[in-house]
Amino acid sequence: MRILISLVSSSTSTGLHLLSVSRRLHTKISPFSTLIGLKPPPAMATSEDSIRRCLAEKQSSIESQGNTVRALKAANAEKATVDEAIEKLNALKLDKSVMEKQLQAAVNGNGPDGSINKEAFRQAVVNTLERRLFYIPSFKIYRGVAGLYDYGPPGCAVKSNVLSFWRQHFVLEENMLEVDCPCVTPEAVLKASGHVDKFTDLMVKDEKTGTCYRADHLLKDFCNEKIQKDLSISAEKAAELKHVLAMLDDLSAEELGAKIKEYGITAPDTKNPLSDPYPFNLMFQTSIGPSGLSPGYMRPETAQGIFVNFKDLYYYNGNKLPFAAAQIGQAFRNEISPRQGLLRVREFTLAEIEHFVDPEYKSHPKYSEVADLEFLMFPREQQISAQSAKKIQLGEAVSKGIVNNETLGYFIGRVYLFLTRLGIDKDRLRFRQHLANEMAHYAADCWDAEIESSYGWIECVGIADRSAYDLHAHTVSISLIHTSCIRCEIVSVLANKRQNMCGKEEKSGVPLVAHEKFSEPKEVEKLVIAPVKKELGLAFKGNQKKVVEALEAMNEKEALDMKASLETKGVVEFYVCTLGENVTIKKNMVSISKEKKKEHQRTFTPSVIEPSFGIGRIIYCLYEHSFYMRPSKAGDEQLNVFRFPPLVAPIKCTVFPLVQNQQYENVAKIISKSLTAAGISHKIDITGTSIGKRYARTDELGVPFAITVDSISSVTIRERDSKDQIRVDVEEAAPVMKSVTDGHRTWADVWASFPHHSSGSAED
Amino acid sequence: MRILISLVSSSTSTGLHLLSVSRRLHTKISPFSTLIGLKPPPAMATSEDSIRRCLAEKQSSIESQGNTVRALKAANAEKATVDEAIEKLNALKLDKSVMEKQLQAAVNGNGPDGSINKEAFRQAVVNTLERRLFYIPSFKIYRGVAGLYDYGPPGCAVKSNVLSFWRQHFVLEENMLEVDCPCVTPEAVLKASGHVDKFTDLMVKDEKTGTCYRADHLLKDFCNEKIQKDLSISAEKAAELKHVLAMLDDLSAEELGAKIKEYGITAPDTKNPLSDPYPFNLMFQTSIGPSGLSPGYMRPETAQGIFVNFKDLYYYNGNKLPFAAAQIGQAFRNEISPRQGLLRVREFTLAEIEHFVDPEYKSHPKYSEVADLEFLMFPREQQISAQSAKKIQLGEAVSKGIVNNETLGYFIGRVYLFLTRLGIDKDRLRFRQHLANEMAHYAADCWDAEIESSYGWIECVGIADRSAYDLHAHTVSISLIHTSCIRCEIVSVLANKRQNMCGKEEKSGVPLVAHEKFSEPKEVEKLVIAPVKKELGLAFKGNQKKVVEALEAMNEKEALDMKASLETKGVVEFYVCTLGENVTIKKNMVSISKEKKKEHQRTFTPSVIEPSFGIGRIIYCLYEHSFYMRPSKAGDEQLNVFRFPPLVAPIKCTVFPLVQNQQYENVAKIISKSLTAAGISHKIDITGTSIGKRYARTDELGVPFAITVDSISSVTIRERDSKDQIRVDVEEAAPVMKSVTDGHRTWADVWASFPHHSSGSAED
């Protein structure tokens, strides 16, 4: 669930969604600046900043020294004097060029050629991935479609392994209720969730060709280009541009348009002028059925399918809380201009969990199992004070209130375990808390699991405590609620009455609530509002119904105020939002009282804690974290390796006859058969290629083990990263593979139990 | 791949697709009638037929006897005479009513209340499925959308188990290349595959309300209703209606419209007149990117994603044939009016295999592993001669040429093993061969795995040898090929030249071909067509290019005929399809010769053999085949059971403490933990409900085993169907469960190894 809707605040923010937040983070310098309006903050004394200042001074020294030289020459000064002045000028120019290099390095973050290394590294990874068909640009023979990718055989196997492990780690271990809903979704559902109105990005058009661009991308590119390439800009200008980058996601259409005009940004391809920014809905629209009258969308997330089934799932769980539902499936976003390869795509696999919990009891029975974990966390405070992420013990974060509650903490811990077991480097994984302005007003707390890649820190999992928002939204359509009307917010009261104050007919009308049965009845004081319909009918005629509804929808404070006014003054002015005007209520028109009642249960809307996984992003980051290069044995080339753990590896082992020989091939087939029976994905390679080349080929696919058949009774098993080799009997090969690939034994265990094979003979 | 396109034949058939064929089969009586045009065939002497004739005779006897009685009465005949005549009349009426019952029984197929039983059985299954959330009508709280269903927790687990087994049985065992392509597909791809033009159903509209109906459904309903409910129609009329049913899928829009008019069929809901039938494309349309200028569709099948990647996959496989690629994923069809619950839906999961093979070598190395299998087959001959399916040994079917080739036979055998291992009843599974008129002209052979359900025989898997059609289609866009132009068919020649005879620019232009390297070069005689461009330019000016292309595209026979004509007569008339007219070719305009060349390899377009699985249909049939009812122990109610094999069961076992007791609950938790560690999905039920009720609850979910904790050292394990119980030590519970659920041991093995528990104590 990736929409934040500002209900009460008058925030100008457009519909943000979690997976877009990473756009901001790549460039975030001083995120708190977003809190203090459009004026740039006072420039901070960063090293980049001081270099820019020195550079500006150096530049003016050069100019003044240049003037000096020209003046000396004009005055026909002595050669020695002129030469000395020229020498000084050259020295200044040399200083400047050194400073420019320093500035370039500071701008790029890590070392003088940091960004170049990142680019080169990414290129090496991506080349290997494409060449070995981990992924393929979709519909390539038709010149492809931006933002759509196929997973080829190894990529598909990796994805399938990641999803299997996700099911094991979350669904099975937590007894979650997995559901599988369609992608085609009718409009009413996405209207209620807010997507139809708010799931947009701002777009500009080339005024001549009509080509579309994302407005914030153009502004971002302009600022980055300026900061990184134009070394002559002042420190103040640089600070301003950085400030714009930091608040990119908070700019309204008008503000974005104004900045684009101010900076004179034109269409990148044609240099034509651009239109004003306007919102473009990111959902793929379609039509359900033959009439053309039922609009539908391809779901932009899987979560809504769970929310609309809450009632049935709660029943399935024996009407007990807490419980979690989960869904794995495709989601769709018609990105305006997809970039960053596999990270921003138009169709992707999401795995989402909705954990429903009583808002008054957010503890978790298995919390103690993760409380001792320690990993990089980046709480709000650290971000605001420009510190970096630091290692914090999860239990401490929860007990200090940094993480809002135990259940949220439990899921953060489980996500950490999930990602690191897949092979994500724990030093390049951090949990970043959302800033106050990133979260919707209804959210209790929100953390993103961010993984560092060559593109920067990428949000791969969002873990949010969304309170009761989503279940409310489907009971009373939030999109129909007046933002100016305070009564519209008390949706839970309305939910039970199956009616919607300000709304028309678009709502499910089904209360999505839970109950807590009391062990013995409790006496409670209840507000009773009894409109006197006869009197109201006489006074308001056709508007009577709306007035009655408005009276019944008053909250306690409103009702008691009215009661007091009626008792003292006899009349009161009362705003009816469905009429859009005040009406006069007299004492005889409504009776308001407090009555004591015995209640046997409490009815409430559960809170939902939502871990949402972008599977494709996790897999891409995993590729980067798993990739390394090492020299070939001869030392004449660099070989690519993916160090996937067996859990993830697309193929668990290869079987190679050392030489082309019928006997060895027969042994290889026998081993292959027993591997298949044990459910181990593997490949036989009987080509006559050298064994070293065959190893290199499979290292590049991340195959962790290779079985080389070099005798008819026993074989050599080689581990990919250490290149260590052991000898095992033919009939032991499959059982050994089984135990090391299903995690019952480590390679170290196996290494300790079998005779070692001296390398060399098989490697060449 | 479910489109049959009639390229050469002038068939009027609309775009058929495999999964729709089942529509016809439910009602098929004399399929061969479709071969002989619109006139009904001579009525056959079926039992139904003869009853109708007798009934008609009986009716006229009644009428004539009625006349006799009236005449006697009018003539004031003797009472005894009148009474005798009346008695005779009553006897005739009694006969008639017996006959009507017989006819009703014959119409319904199996027994006097066959269809009623089927309906009742289906209702019992569906009630259980919906109540236990195997499936849920999607977006129920928003009043749902026809043809969209969610899988709830047990349904989702069954689906996930079926797909895992599919991956194991096909992808892993056959080393297939699995891919994962997007659902959003650009128009060019589906234009080339033929879906944009031909993937349609015929629709009629209520002329007043605009409500849409499938034309063939209305006609089908009318005929069925008439045959089943109107016992007075003549045998000839019944035969005519059955004939219409049998050829429903072959009717053109005009023929369907004519029949609807002839029978006076009106809109079912309003009785308003209907529009003429017109084609409605079943693809969900959308737009890719923000411009609105790139139409796209939600894929109607997964196969195209494989075909467009053929070149990369062939390379990935070391440029070797045969190999198979596979894909599991969502497919979408915007059905006009979805019916039959889970069987005809608008979004569903397909699992498709494309096995690419050299058309000259269609043997299969593992064929012998399936050749001895014997199961129900329904070859074309049997269907035409109105026989029923019979048990045939697969090897015999292949050797006799009933099944076209070994590879096709191999997949038929593998599909049989897959379905029966899931729990499909082998006596309600048949492989039906497509009739000549059901297949596209390019298909070599095609068999459907049909499963009998309460809806009749349902096509669940299609296994087709589609020859080179699909790879051709993406090289040269078939939709652009003139159906009247013989030269347009020699696409493989053109493919290698990257040009398309009659087409415009819409084609991939990438040759999707394979090569066979010869062990030594072969000398071949090659036809060389060398147009003399200078002379052609002089003669045809601007049309020269089209004439050259047409000359180069001639096949061998055409070219040699031209050569002969030119040598004898000096000129020849030549039809150029791109010009749409004949031109005169003179001797000096083209040189045609045969030259000997050495060739090092053969280039060809591979054939594709395609098993395509409708996962949702298989699962629904599995539900019906697994469902049964048995009396409760007290005999006072019928309990529902799904007899899923452990492989499929959504939950493998439950853990019940016999009574609510902390010690037992602790033991249950210990067992639960070891089950989780072993990866066995299970559920603990610690409610105080009687153990019998708890068994009944889980039987209804198809849970095969229950572990009842009735002591702290050992437990009782109960098998669902036999209700047999054994006793095992606490620490053995998980390993025993592991071995029986992963198939390493059967319940019989376990039953033989552990002490039995006398039933009764735990059951209550």
Sheet of most strands of chain A: 9 strands, mixed
CATH architecture of one domain in chain A, by name, is 3-Layer(aba) Sandwich
Q: How many strand units of chain A?
A: 28
Mean pLDDT of chain A: 85
Number of H/I helices of chain A: 25
Name the helicity range of chain A.
Answer: 25-40%
Spatial strand arrangement across the major sheet of chain A: 3-10-11-21-16-15-14-12-13
Largest interface between protein chains, with number of residues from each side: A-B, 79 and 79 residues
Radius of gyration of chain A (Å): 32 Å
Q: Proportion of β residues of chain A? A: 15-25%
Shape of chain A: globular
**Could you name the CATH class of one domain in chain A?**
Alpha Beta
- The CATH superfamily of one domain in chain A is Anticodon-binding domain
Which residue ranges of chain A are poorly predicted, with pLDDT under 50 across at least 5 consecutive positions? Answer: 1-45, 477-506
CATH topology of one domain in chain A: Rossmann fold
Oligomer: homodimer
- What distance lies between the first and last C-alpha atoms of chain A, to the nearest angstrom? 53 Å
Structural class of chain A: alpha+beta
Protein name (chains A, B): glycine--tRNA ligase
Family (chains A, B): Belongs to the class-II aminoacyl-tRNA synthetase family.
EC number (chains A, B): 6.1.1.14
Catalytic activity (chains A, B): tRNA(Gly) + glycine + ATP = glycyl-tRNA(Gly) + AMP + diphosphate
